[in-house]
Each structure stands twice: as C-alpha cells, then as structure tokens.
C-alpha cells in the first residue's frame, strides 16, 4: 500500500509492510515487514494445519479438495514450503526487520478451513484457546511445530527472522513459550534470534514492564486490544458501532505499551488496520517516541 492510500501517517513513525497486504501494493519507504501466519494460512493454505493428523476423519469432498491443494506433497511439506516461498517473495531489500507472528486465529476461524471439524466448539472463541495456550495444548502442538519449521527454514536460508508471540496473558505464558521455542530449535538469543510478544489484551500492556524481561520488544495489535478492552465482539455486526479504537481507554493502553517498550529500550510496533480512518489514533501515535507503525488499509 502506498502512503497516498493511507492518508497522513505520523511523521515520527517507521512505516512497515504487512503480509498478506489488504492492498495490492506496499509502502515505498517501509523499513520492516510484519507477517501474519494466521492470514497466510486462511488465504493461501486453506486447510487446517492439523489436518495431516486427522485424515481419516475427512469427508470425501474434503479429501478431494485437499489432494488438489497438496499436488503430491504431504501436508507438512506443502504447509512449510508454501509459507516459506510466500514470505521469501515478500521480503524487500529495504526491510531491516522481518517479523513473523505465530497464529492468533481463534477456533471459529479455524473451523471454516478444510478439515475444520477438528476444532472443538467454543462458546466465546475470541477469548478462547489462542496464542500460547493453544501452542502448548496437546491437540494443537503439531500446528505450532509446523509454524516453527517455517521460521527455522527461513533462518536456515539466511533470513534474520524475528518471532512475534500472540496472546501472551501472563508471566507464566512468557516463560512457557520461550521454553517451547527452544525445544523447536528456536532458542531466544541464539544467532541473534529475537522474540517479541503481542499486546492483544489489556493484561499484556499492564504487565509490559515485567513481560519485556522475557522478550525483545512488543507489538500492539490494536484490533484485538480494542475488542478485549471494550468487550465488543468484532464478529457481531450489531455491535459494529461500539468497536472504536479511538476510545480513550484504548488510546491510554497504546500509550502505556509504547512507553514501557521505550523504558526498556526495546522496539514497539503498533499495528492498526484502517489507520487512516482513525485521526485520534494517528494524533496519539504522533505524540509518542520511537514507534514503528503498521497501517493496513
């Protein structure tokens, strides 16, 4: 996406690209790339990452659809190679940082994929088994391993990938994910590997000073933070008018997250979809120091 598409972005921000991009082009001056594995899986994989463990449960239609996607590869081979190729192709010479966010998809979205019947039904998936809780569960550990293989493959190719961990809710989550990454041969600090975490819920902001002892920076996911701060389900169209990233509580949390990262001398990335539509968010970001902005249309 070009800057002209976004409207005026705070001059103090280091702009970044998002993959997959909601627009067909990228920011000319982008200094970093943020990769959402969740969105890549939904747009380019189309099947549930755990499907290879449950092939006997698929319907005949799902089996046909899956075979046409795999084109002779195993599920694991196709998943890893497809994502590695997509991410490699999106990296530009000006990208000083390439950050890959592990999947933050909820069970509702996963259930829409081929083989989505694997998912357990949750009453409130937005607040359900996501992020670290999902990665550490026995049911979905293989998905986590596949995502780690994508990152490891890119790093083996010489791409200095940084990892972003979504839905870190507590200090025990922080310690748990660092251990799990090390088991997948992605120990924080080895060969310069950096691990950041996402502020998806208010707890992740309020605990930032302590959480940053485990991580090398943070990412503010404005969409998730707004949903969980205001208690507004984004999937509920009747509540659309209540979903407001410009709410004072959300702006206060964004400011606190940035200041905590600055105090720790670690990077803070603010990801705000449709930023051009939120002048109060832009004004708030303009008052903050040392931020990197992802402003997806």
TrEMBL record:
The keyword Translocase does not apply. InterPro entries: PEP_synth, PEP_util_C, Pyrv/PenolPyrv_kinase-like_dom, Pyrv_kinase-like_dom_sf. One of its GO terms (molecular function) is ATP binding. Keywords: ATP-binding, Metal-binding, Nucleotide-binding, Pyruvate. Residues 111-289 form the PEP-utilising enzyme C-terminal domain. PANTHER family: PHOSPHOENOLPYRUVATE SYNTHASE. Belongs to the PEP-utilizing enzyme family. This is Phosphoenolpyruvate synthase. It comes from Vibrio casei.
């Amino acid at each position: 996406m070009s800057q002209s598409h976004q409207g005026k972005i705070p001059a103090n921000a280091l702009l970044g690209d998002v993959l997959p991009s909601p627009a067909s082009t990228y920011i000319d001056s982008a200094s970093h790339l943020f990769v959402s594995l969740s969105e890549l899986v939904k747009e380019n994989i189309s099947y549930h990452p755990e499907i290879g463990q449950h092939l006997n449960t698929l319907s005949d239609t799902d089996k046909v659809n899956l075979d046409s996607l795999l084109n002779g590869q195993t599920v694991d081979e196709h998943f890893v190679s497809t994502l590695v190729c997509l991410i490699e192709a999106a990296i530009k010479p000006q990208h000083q940082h390439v950050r890959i966010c592990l999947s933050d998809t909820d069970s509702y979205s996963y259930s829409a994929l081929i083989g989505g019947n694997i998912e357990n039904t949750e009453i409130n998936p937005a607040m359900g088994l996501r992020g670290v809780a999902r990665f550490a569960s026995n049911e979905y550990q293989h998905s986590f391993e596949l995502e780690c293989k994508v990152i490891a493959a890119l790093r083996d190719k010489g791409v200095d990938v940084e990892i972003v961990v979504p839905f870190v809710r507590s200090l025990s989550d922080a310690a748990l994910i660092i251990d799990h990454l090390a088991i997948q041969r992605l120990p924080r600090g080895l060969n310069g590997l950096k691990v950041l975490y996402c502020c998806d819920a208010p707890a992740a902001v309020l605990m930032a000073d302590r959480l940053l002892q485990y991580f090398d920076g943070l990412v503010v996911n404005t969409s998730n933070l707004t949903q969980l701060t205001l208690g507004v389900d984004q999937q509920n169209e009747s509540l659309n008018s209540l979903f407001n990233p410009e709410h004072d509580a959300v702006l206060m949390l964004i400011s606190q997250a940035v200041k905590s990262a600055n105090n720790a001398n670690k990077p803070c990335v603010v990801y705000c979809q449709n930023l051009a539509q939120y002048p109060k968010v832009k004004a708030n970001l303009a008052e903050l120091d040392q931020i990197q902005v992802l402003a997806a249309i």
